Structures are given as C-alpha cells and as structure tokens.
Amino acid sequence: MTVGAARGEHPSPAVLPAHPALPDPLVMQDGTRVASAAAWRQARRPELLELFETYVYGRVPQGPAYDSQTPLAHRVLFEDRRAFDGIGTLREVELTIGPPDWPKIYLLIATPNDVPRAPCFVGMNFAGNHQLTDDPRVRLPDGWMPDRHPGVVGNRATDAGRGGQADDWPLAEIVQRGYAVATFYCGDIQPDRPDVREGMRAALEADGEADPAETATIMWWAWGIQQAVDYLRTDDAIDPDRIAVVGHSRLGKTALLAGALDERIALTVANQAGCGGSGPSRHDDPKAETVRIITEKFPHWFAGNFTKFGDDPSRLPVDQNCLVAMCAPRPVLFTAAADDLWANPSGQFEVLQAAAPVYELLGVDGLKADAMPAADAPLLGDGRLGYWIRSGKHSMTPADWNIYMDFADRWMK
Ligand code: GCU
C-alpha cells in the first residue's frame, strides 16, 4: 500500500537554490509576499506542509484507513480512581487504530479528580509507560526497545524498568497542578531503529524502492500522537479544546511536527529538540548537530530527501521556523538546557524569532524579546512564543514540567 500520494511536482534537492538566511515564512516559493491571514491559511500554510512532507519528514499518512475522524475502538485495561493519594485517577487504555495487524497504542492517562474537563498534556515516552510509575498494573510494552533504557534486557522491557524514568513524566505533580497527562511508548507506533520491519512502517509500506518522500519515523510518531488526540477528545475527564503536545529531544521534534500538523492541538512544547525539531537546519555552530550528522546516524527519522541536504542545508526551501509558523496563532514553547549545545539553544531562539512575523500577521503577539534570555530566566507570558533555557544538561525534569505548566497556565487556563 502506498502511504500518502505525491502531491505536486517538487524539484530534486540537487537543483534548489541556496539561501543562507532562514527562509521568510511569509514569502511563497514563487516570490509572492503573503500579506493577509487568508493568504497565509489558504496558500502559504498548505505550501509549507507540502514542502516539509517532500523534503523533511515524508508524507502525512492519508487515505480512508488513516482518516483521523474515524472513531477508535478502546478498552480500559485498568482504572484507579484513588491514585496519587486520592487526588487523581490513573488508567491505561488500549487504542485500536486499524486492522488487527496494525500496532495498538497503550495510553497511560492521569487526570485530576477535582477538575472537570481538565486541560491535558499528551506526548510519547522513550521506553514504556511502566517506566513512569511503580504501579504494577501498568503494562510492559512487548515490542523492541533500545537496550540503553532502565531494565531493558535483550531489547525487551522487563519489570526491572518500573519507575525507572518517573522523573521524565512527574504524573502526581502534573495532576496536583490541575492538568491531565496522557502518554504512550513511541515504539507502540514505530520502534526507534533504522530497521523498519516493524510498527506502522512494516504494516503499510510498499516493498521495493523507497520513495524519497516516504513517511519517515518522526512523521509516523506525530501521526500516532494524532490518534491519541482523537481518543482524548472523546474522554469526559479532558477538555477537547485544551490539549497540549509535549516531547523531549527526538520526541520533542515529533511534538513540534504534531503541533504544526494538527490544529486541534492547542499548545506545543518542544523540550531540547534540536536539529530536525526546534533547532535550525541552517547554522554554522560547530557544537550543534547538523543535517549531515543527524541523517547519517538516524536515517529512519526523516524522508530520504532530507539526507540530500547534508552538504548544504541552505538549499532547503524550508527551515524549522516555518514549522513553528504552521502552529500560529497557537502558543509554542521551546525549552533548552545550557549544557546541551548539541541541541543548539541559541539557534532555537532564532527559529522562534523567524517564526514570529506569522503570529503578528494573524494579529497576536509572537516573541516579546529581542535577545535570548539568560539561563533560568523564563520568557513565558507576553507573547505566544515562549523560550526557557535552564542550567544543566540534556534531560526532561520535574523543573522543566513546572515551566511547561506555567506557560500553559498563561495560555490554556
Ligand atoms: C541524539 C540526537 C538528537 C536527539 C537526541 C535525543 O543526541 O543526535 O537529535 O534529539 O539524540 O533524542 O535524545
């Protein structure tokens, strides 16, 4: 089965002209300036989507089988209404997203008991829901996972991993602040390895020569988040109009893509997401990851075309500021860490700056700062583009979650 039909003709990466500066999200490919909200919505935003599909992430899965309006079948695996010392409910839900041979999503959902229709964060985790809590009822994923995570033996999850990454998703603290949170293992949709003979890619892709714009793993992950959003919007404990997407690092790249694709997502948080996510492809910072390095090491994350820009990313007709712009006017927060130069904190700030004109065109404030804030001085409330760099290293911590919730308090409460 072919996933996503090619739409329109796009030049091969080899013949695209070079533009050293970040592309202006308000100038069409043919040079026309976008001067109205209508032109943005009807012409430029769709053009950008197509360019990201062609040159960066591959096609958005589409066709009747992928219709995101189709109601999903779900089964509650367990529910504890007295979780987190009685203030919340914890449950795990199995989502059937297609025919029996398709993967299933196992969504762990924590909701506050005293907030009707709570705002909700959704995102994927790296190594299974069981890593986020000691609760023995939480299911162990049965698919492949990288050995570097706690308790993983022979690329399979074991009980020894329970609670091993609880700091990444501090469920109790999130519920205490009046938010719901829903998460699932990224490998439910597509295991994180170049060998794609598993997951959605295996279930759906045609054999034979790969289309250079075929749906890559980050796009499949973003699509998985959209499946979770479909379900969450039917959940009585959650406000369907206040769902925020969040992710760390490669899963932060995914969160940003999901936020850009899906206008039902009210707010986007990309934590230390760097190259191919919140960091620009065009940069000359020797300490930051480049398109060449990322596509050599993680070829499965991106469309084959993205690899072809390794020698000269200035030929890319888009850069990551255009992906942020696709979220406009919805709020976006980038969070960075001072020691995480690989993810290019200053470049991330420039990406926000170069997305801001689209927010202004749509009549809202984008970024209310001319220079990158100092470490530990959050820029969260004045415009819909927020930025925070904290001291420390590459990780997702309870302190970072407090910042996500401060930003969400401003824009979703
Ligand atoms: C590697 C990779 C990054 C990625 C990170 C992560 O460092 O180079 O692009 O963001 O892994 O996902 O932790």
Automatic annotation (TrEMBL):
Stretches for region Disordered: 1-21
Keyword field contains Zinc: no
Boundaries of every 4-O-methyl-glucuronoyl methylesterase-like domain copy: 214-363
Membrane-crossing segments per the record: none
Top-rank lineage group of the source organism: Bacteria
MF (Gene Ontology): carboxylic ester hydrolase activity
Keywords: Hydrolase, Serine esterase, Signal
Record bears the keyword Signal: yes
Pfam family, one: GCE_fung
Protein's UniProt name: 4-O-methyl-glucuronoyl methylesterase-like domain-containing protein
Protein species of origin: Lacipirellula parvula
